[in-house]
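Quick one: structure tokens for this chain, please?
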Amino acid sequence: MTKSKPKSTKKNKKDFLISTRFLLTVALLVILLFAGIIFRKAFLTQPIINKSQQNDTQTAQLLQLETKIAKWSPLLNSYPPQVEEKDLPALKAEFTSFASQTEEYFNANKNNMTNANQLQYTFLLGELYRFGHNLDLQNSWQKSEHYYKQALAIDNTHYESNSGLATLYVNSNIKYAPDAERIFSYMMTLDLTDEQRAQTNLGLFFSHYYQGKFDQAYQNLEQGLRYDPDNELIKTMKDIMDDRKIGKN
């Protein structure tokens, strides 16, 4: 999957195209998109013997996966990764080994999992391989999309899986911006908290901006601030738009 920084191609907006400085600002700020995973409490158990212990082991495996994602999120939640070049080989090796073992465990045990555990596992595998995509690891983008879609097949209203898939699309290539817009728009029909609605409007902002829909993008920022007036990322993006007089009638 070739990555490219999304950009607008609308001719009548050529005077307001993103500057290099603005692109770099966006790249850094995207790290904050949809941050935050709710972690479960669990304890390591003995190997699977009966159904009760099997469920405990699944919970422990989920906790391990959640813990790894929490550890790697500040480093791998954006592209390029926030990792020094000299540290990349070791991180890639650790990541590849862990992802392979986790995926192997899931595929061997998924038929014995509850829907709730399957949902959480597939969502987290989607997150994990989205990180792998940001590490430029082969097939990670496809695996991330695959697992997010598996999670949504279990529960198409799952906020985290919808936002994960939409984020994968909007941060990958401009050609996926319409797909991201479709998912973010659907999310706005769900029963969300004000904070989630603000974050979803931020996702819509990026989706619209990368398609050259500047007026809609600006409206998304205004709407986001109505839901969360103290959201620093949305306020920063709006200040940048105001400074460049982009999308403001």
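Residues 1-51 have pLDDT under 50 and may be disordered.
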